[in-house]
Amino acid sequence: SYVLTQPPSVSVAPGKTARITCGGNNIGSKSVHWYQQKPGQAPVLVIYYDSDRPSGIPERFSGSNSGNTATLTISRVEAGDEADYYCQVWDSSSDHHDVVFGGGTKLTVL
Amino acid sequence: QVQLVQSGAEVKKPGASVKVSCKASGYTFTGYYMHWVRQAPGQGLEWMGRINPNSGGTNYAQKFQGRVTMTRDTSISTAYMELSRLRSDDTAVYYCARTVVATPPHFDYWGQGTLVTVSS
After folding, report:
1. CB–CB of B110 and A42 under 8 A?
2. What pLDDT digit, counting tens, does each position of B86-120 carry?
């Protein structure tokens, strides 16, 4: 089955740029979606189809996807961005079509 | 506005079954797939499967084949997820989340989650 690999943690100072990666075999050929989850809350979609932003999500959130790595970039990081972030794809490469999540990355704002 | 409202927390004994509901409002229930995703304490998100509310057709993750059943009642815009032969490692928050029918899907709305605790 398809595997998505994320770093367990990323730390960044307020006002700086955070980059969270999501690795997968030829992930550039898939559409990647990103979710933000704060403690005790349900996940929230922040990026879909690699780089599109849902309404209400700040422009500070952006995404890219190429080769074997997709990246979620958060510019001008704020304390409120501290959360877990998950990437997600749809794996249709086998007989079994599955939703696959990365293991998640905890973003800490220093 | 779109809302997915789930049933309340459950405590079950090992070997029992649990059925969680997810009532949808604010959109056409049959126009979107409903998925179920779970999250064990301190762990990541795990996809369990999906149901097409229009046809009732289902796709389950291999891990849960034979133990999970997803159904729906279109008359009350509600989806259900039943998990049988519960084990302690099924203790988790269970979420329903909708996606558009087209693939590849992304989850644009989520329920608030239902905590299922499996303990003897």
Report:
1. yes
2. 999 999 999 999 998 777 889 999 999 999 999 99
